[in-house]
Structure formats: C-alpha cells, structure tokens
Design goal:
Layout: E1 2-3, E2 13-19, E3 23-27, E4 33-37, E5 44-52, H1 61-71, E6 80-83, E7 90-101, E8 106-114
Parallel strand pairs: 1-6
Antiparallel strand pairs: 2-5, 3-4, 5-8, 6-7, 7-8
Length: 115
C-alpha cells in the first residue's frame, strides 16, 4: 500500500458514493428469479474530483501527482492510503478510472474503490 503523494493537495470534492454490483441472479426452471449476495458487503465506489496547480513544469502539483500515479500506483494496480471519505479514520483505495481537464488548475476526476 502506497502513501498519498507528499506535497499534493488532499482537498477532494464532489465525492459521490455508489456500491459495486453485489447481487447474483439465478433464474429457476419454473421461471422464478432468485437473488443472492455475492459477498457479505458490497464495495464502496466513490467518484471524486481534485484540483491541482499546473504551470507545465516537472515540479508542479499536477505533474507530481501524475508521476506518483504512473510510477507508484502503476496506473491503478496498487492501492493507496487516504482519509476515509464516509467516516473517520483511514482506508485503502484503488483508482479505477482517472481523467483530467482544464489548464490551471487541472481538474482530475477519479473513481476510487475502497478495499
């Protein structure tokens, strides 16, 4: 598990919660449909935004974040440690989707899956 990038903002906003698909559906021969939980608890998936300073230098906040994402998180294959988005304490997250737009600041939109 990787720590959050030093010197990069932690000011997440527009955090929206959804749950992973955790239901298994089976159709019986009679036509009746039964639903079962795949796991005891569905994973929490958050859509979040983060504004990062970008002056197109290697040291700018946006480029440091992207370097961390590519080299340390390996494009979302590794997990990172961050404040829980729904309560107190810390949680382990995986970035499952990342897009960015704008100039300065760059708005990074991500999907985080709580582990």
């Amino acid at each position: 598990m990787i720590q959050w990038m030093e010197g990069v903002s932690k000011k997440i906003y527009d955090a929206a919660l959804q749950f992973s698909d955790n239901v298994e559906t089976v159709e019986m021969k009679s036509g009746k449909i039964k639903r079962y939980l795949k796991n005891s608890a569905a994973r929490r998936i958050y859509s979040v935004k983060l504004d990062l300073a970008n002056d197109n230098t290697p040291e700018c906040e946006y480029n440091r974040f992207m370097d961390w994402y590519e080299k340390y998180l390996r494009y979302g294959t590794e997990t990172f440690y961050f404040n829980k988005l729904n309560s107190h304490g810390y949680a382990e997250y995986t970035i499952t989707r990342l897009t960015s737009d704008g100039q300065n600041p760059k708005t990074v939109t991500m999907e985080w899956e709580e582990q």
